[in-house]
Design goal:
The chain is mainly alpha-helical. The protein has 14 helices and five strands. It folds into three domains: about 90 residues, Orthogonal Bundle (Endonuclease Iii, domain 2), CATH 1.10.1670.10; about 100 residues, Hypothetical protein, domain 2 (Endonuclease III, domain 1, Orthogonal Bundle), CATH 1.10.340.30; about 70 residues, Arc Repressor Mutant, subunit A (Orthogonal Bundle). A three-stranded antiparallel sheet has the order 3-5-4. Helix 1 crosses helix 11, helix 2 packs across helix 8 and helix 9 crosses helix 11. The longest helix is centred in the first third of the chain and has 17 residues.
């Protein structure tokens, strides 16, 4: 499956003109503050935009700077993260903020190597900060951009197919329009989020359809088989982890484990202790909670870290 030779200048012109009229208005696009962009990018990684639109300003009101986040108790950070899911992201943000204060005086660096050296920052987040906060001409490839470029540049046989990451990153860098990297990266994200979607691409509305290698060739496929996840009584462990954190938030961060168990699972009995212990150990490993006391797990107390 070879890449098509696309006219990069023409592609950029079509996509950027579309973005000028159809780009989403989002609060993190009204700032070049690296910390605020870091918060938005972390929230958006695993949460829908509509939910982030509510939580983003609330989080920034509580923790307006890197230092305020670094100096806050982790418990407070986890509490304000409520409703976002994947609570270990709050732990990673807190650790990252402390590292930025300790090693960079509270200012996120504008250098790729220094950004990547910080805990929790990978290639995507580093490039997002470099592009959106510091105005660097670098590509930003998230799931939306990868899908768009895969379809436009390579002939995808189905709507679920995408090209390997490395060639997509290389193509994204080669296509960067001079002086327009910020708008180009944001435009590709919006195109993937609103037009070139995963399950129902609206090819008739796509500004790049005339250049798209996959137009007319992608077959519709059934939903991919769901990944196997650890579950209990029909619910994934992740759901119970969220229930534990929510229960602790409601009880000022601390409660007896036996009471917690009955709150998160109405049918809990002593036969379920092994399951509960596994959940709690996982949350402890992720730095979200602590336990105190001795003896069987069910007899101890649990608290937000």
């Amino acid at each position: 499956m070879a890449s098509t030779r696309v006219n990069g200048k023409r592609l950029a012109g079509l996509v950027l003109r579309w973005y000028a009229s159809h780009g989403r208005t989002l609060p993190w696009r009204n700032t070049r503050n690296p910390y605020r962009i870091l918060i938005s990018e972390t929230m958006l990684q695993q949460t829908q935009v509509q939910r982030v639109l509510t939580r983003y300003p609330e989080f920034l009101r509580r923790f307006p700077t890197v230092r305020s986040l670094a100096n806050a108790p982790l418990r407070d950070v986890v509490i304000i993260w409520r409703g976002m899911g994947y609570n270990n992201r709050a732990v990673r943000l807190h650790l990252l903020a402390r590292s930025v204060v300790e090693t960079h005086g509270g200012a996120l660096p504008d250098n790729r190597e220094r950004l990547r050296a910080l805990p929790g920052i990978g290639r995507y987040t580093a490039n997002a900060l470099l592009s959106f906060a510091f105005g660097k001409s670098v590509p930003v490839v998230d799931v939306n951009v990868r899908r768009v470029l895969s379809r436009v540049l390579w002939k995808m046989e189905s709507i679920s197919a995408v090209q390997a990451e490395k060639p997509v990153w290389n193509a994204a860098e080669a296509l960067l329009p001079p002086g327009r990297a910020y708008d180009w990266n944001q435009a590709l994200m919006d195109l993937g989020a609103t037009i070139c979607t995963a399950r129902a691409p609206r090819c008739g509305h796509c500004p790049a359809v005339s250049l798209c290698a996959s137009r007319g060739s992608m077959r519709r496929t059934g939903d991919a088989a769901p990944k196997k996840v650890r579950s209990f009584n029909g619910l994934p462990f992740r759901a119970y982890r969220g229930r534990i954190i929510d229960a602790l938030r409601e009880r000022n961060g601390s409660m007896r484990i036996e009471a917690l168990a009955r709150q998160i699972h109405a049918g809990f009995s002593r036969r379920n202790e092994r399951w509960l212990t596994s959940l709690i150990h996982g949350l402890e490993r992720d730095g979200l909670i602590t336990t105190t006391g001795s003896g069987p797990m069910i007899d101890r107390r649990i608290a937000l870290a």
